[in-house]
Amino acid sequence: MRRSFLYIIRLAILVALAIWLVRNPGDIRIDWIGWRLEMPFALFMVITVAVTWVAGIGLRMAAGALGAPWAVMRRRADQRRESGFRALTLGLAAIAAGDAEEARRQAREADRLLRDPSLTRLLSAQAAALNGDTAAAARYFAALRDNEDTAFLGIVGLLRQALARGDEARSLELAEEAYAMRPDAPLVATTRLYGRARARRWFDAQVALYDAVKRRIVPEEDGRRHRSALLTERAREALAADKLDEALEFAGKARESVPGFVPAVALEAELLGRTGKAKRGQRLIEEAWPKSPHPALTEAYRGLVTETNLIDRFKRLHALADHAVDHPESRMTIAEAALDAELWGEARVQLEALTGSDLTARACRLRARLEDAEHGDDRAARLWLERSGSAPADPAWTCGSCGAVAPDWSAVCGHCGEFDTVAWTLPPRVSVLSSDDVADLEVDVVEMPHSLPPAA
After folding, report:
1. Which residues fall within 8 angstroms of residue 175, CB to CB, at 6 or more apart?
2. Which of 76, 374, 399, 403 minimizes the number of CB atoms within 10 Å of its CB?
3. Residue 451 to residue 456: CA distance in whole angstroms
4. What is the pLDDT of residues 228-264, one digit of tens each?
5. Is the backbone of residue 406 left (phi > 0), alpha (psi -120 to 50) or beta?
6. 3-state DSSP helix/strand/coil percent for the chain, to nearest 5?
């Protein structure tokens, strides 16, 4: 519509000009070095326009002829660059597919065609890393790091290498450097968080955690769990420095972040006892017990009970366990207190109620203690101790990353160094092949070649 309107306007202008020339005829005369040229003005205008048009065509043809070599060279350069980018794309696709040889070949081709190291270094670095040439990859990543436009990519490449070889200090250093450039990068933010935690820089890790949760890199639920773990460690650190009030504040915040978190509840209860608030500490454990019956809470509760008479202590612990009376931990808590108070009947009632998977190694050891203490039956006690070796395992502080079992909770696994992976759960079991299984396996290995098709 717009083009039609403009065409009509131009046509109207031409028609108006033609009418004006018809209504205003005239002649033009040119005298030049003895020559005289006379013609109507309209004819002069037509000749002028025609000459100008022909001259324009001639100039364009001359320019085209003179610029032809440069045009050919530009076309070849464009084709070369297009082929280079195609090689770059194919190289990245080969890396994604895990084809190391193809990635290296395309990297060389892209470098030959583009002749721009800033474009091909990343592909060359990834190809070298895929081929297992970490030294060459490190050189490429370092070159990328030195270029302002590719500095972040180079740092991330070096960071991944440091993580792969388990260099915690170098990983954290590179993560801090990359964070200053792009704080929203998930790998950078999480490495910075977990690196600080593994370095036991609890406050710094908490700052990094707050930032990661705010940027939605760490989910809120995980953030609350991590915060509780960090605050519990900060409370322990303050307690070691004899800063009871500060430790109590951190422990309280840790418990509020994840209600029922056993290490935080037990530590806060202990600190309340040290600051003369034993009753409040007992209430904390009693409130947490229905959700999380745990030996650590039992131990903390024992430390808060002021009664010295074993019968009275038994009654207090029985009242605590009554908040989840059918839980195996409650029964074993009552049984242990009953054994201490020499209430053999009560201990037997609680222990005999544990059957199946609830009859764990710890329960078997308590039965052995009962048989020895009540009847002096060494044989029965020995049988229960032997049975504990094959009984179901008790829950323990187990790392979800490496499966290591620790005697106490820690925010960082003492075996693999992972952050916030230790939880109260059943440790992994190791299955042992019986002699019959081994014999069957040997038979399968011997017979396996006979089932193979004959070679061509």
Report:
1. 159, 188, 191, 192, 195
2. 76
3. 15
4. 999 999 999 999 999 999 999 999 999 999 999 999 9
5. beta
6. 70, 5, 25
What's the pLDDT at 430? 57
Q: Could you read off the pLDDT of 27-68 as tens digits, one per residue?
A: 777 777 777 777 777 777 777 778 888 888 888 887 777 766
- The predicted-structure confidence for 287-335, as pLDDT tens digits, reads as follows 999 999 999 999 999 999 988 899 999 999 999 999 999 999 999 999 9
Bridge partners of residue 31, in order along the sequence = 36
- Token pair in block for residue 145: 């790091």
Q: What span, in angstroms and rounded, lies between the C-alpha atoms of 95 and 393?
A: 45
C-alpha distances in angstroms, 338 versus 349, 361, 382?
10, 19, 21
Return the residue matching tokens 């131009």: 10
Query: Residue ranges of the domains in the chain?
Result: 11-49, 84-146, 395-423
Do 28 and 38 form a contact (C-beta atoms < 8 A)?
yes
Q: In degrees, to the nearest 5, what angle opens at C-alpha 296 toward C-alphas 260 and 282?
A: 65
Nearest partner of 306 among 342, 276, 341, 347, judged by Cα: 276
What pLDDT does 23 receive?
72
What is the residue type of 446? V
Span 57-96, pLDDT tens digits: 888 887 777 766 776 677 776 777 777 767 766 666 665 5
Give 323's contacts (C-beta < 8 A, 6+ positions apart): 286, 289, 290, 330
Bridge pairing between strands 27-32 and 396-399: unpaired
Residue 99's pLDDT band, with cuts at 50, 70 and 90, is: low
* Positions of E strands within 144-220: none
Helix and strand tally (H, E) in the chain? Answer: 20, 5
User: What angle in degrees, to the nearest 10, is found between the helix axes of 2-23 and 41-97?
Assistant: 160
Residue by residue, DSSP assigns 365-404 as HHHHHHHHHHH--HHHHHHHHHHHTTSPPPPEEEETTT--
> Global pTM?
0.72
The Cα-based distances of 413 to 163, 193, 200, 243, 326 in angstroms read 17, 15, 11, 25, 32
Q: Across all residues in the chain, what is the average pLDDT?
A: 85
Helix (H) or strand (E) holding 28: strand 27-32
DSSP string, 285-313: HHHHTTT---HHHHHHHHHH----SHHHH
